Amino acid sequence: MVIHFSGGKDSLVILHKYKDDPALEAVFFGDTGSVYPHMIQFVRDTCKKFNVPLVMVKPERDMHEYQEEHGIPSDMVPTTRSPEFAHVAKEKKQKVQSHIQCCSNMLWKPLYMATLKTKDKVVFRGIKNSDEHGTLPNGTVDENGVKWVNPIWDWTDDDVFNYLLKHKIEIPKHYKDVNASFDCWLCTAHIHSPSDKARLVWTKKNYPTYWRAITNRFKKLRQAISEEMKVIDTTIDFVLNK
């Protein structure tokens, strides 16, 4: 078995519960190359404290290089700004890609490919049924024989925090203000929930250099989407006035 450890509170519970399991082959952490520094340090320190074999799984490409080619990640993507359309577009414009595409290529796929090389292809994750986004149910076995195990599937956030408190387990420092795991600091997607907004506020206060870079990326994203919205508005107005 392997544990997919994000450094967040849920996977931290899994790591603590199964750190001494003789079947544990490795602990995989997805290092996209743009992970918050305090999270990298927390993951390293925690795995060392728990004496588990940490493997930093990295994508084949540099994150900035990848996004330069495929576009800024976003929760909304005009087709005419997508990397697919860029191949046929005559005019060079700022590209925008789905956050699913970006996360998949730079985080999920590298972790999955590493998992396929493990002995038993069994993954333990800190995924809950009460989480905001859906996922593979506990015990799912996919087409490549990977089994996805979610031991805290029926837990709530309160259950998680109570467990961590009971066992006096240190959590990442941002949890004092934001109830979320932190992935890529340069991400301009995942902005719908209160915790997503809180992450950006926390970044602004604690990583001002990163925040300036994110602000510039948001400006590019807003301009790209606004230009496409103007095309829609202009077209509708034209037709209505005929």
Task: Walk me through the structure.
The chain has 242 residues and is of the alpha/beta class. The protein has one domain (2-240): HUPs (Rossmann fold, 3-Layer(aba) Sandwich). The protein is built from eight helices and eight strands, in the order βαβαβαβαβαβββααα. It has helices at 9-18, 37-50, 63-70, 83-86, 99-116, 157-166, 194-206, 208-240, and strands at 2-4, 26-30, 54-57, 72-74, 96-98, 122-124, 140-141, 147-149. The strands form two sheets. A six-stranded mixed β-sheet has the order 3-2-1-6-8-7. Strands 4-5 form a two-stranded parallel sheet. α7 crosses α8 (208-240). It is globular, with a radius of gyration of 20 Å. The model has no long low-confidence stretch (mean pLDDT 94).
Give a quick rundown of the structure:
This protein is of the alpha/beta class.
- The helicity comes to 40-55%
- The poorly predicted ranges are none
How would you describe the shape? Answer: globular
Number of domains: 1
Give the H and E element order.
EHEHEHEHEHEEEHHH
Look up the CATH topology. Answer: Rossmann fold
How are strands sequenced across the largest beta sheet? Answer: 3-2-1-6-8-7
Main pleated-sheet profile: 6 strands, mixed
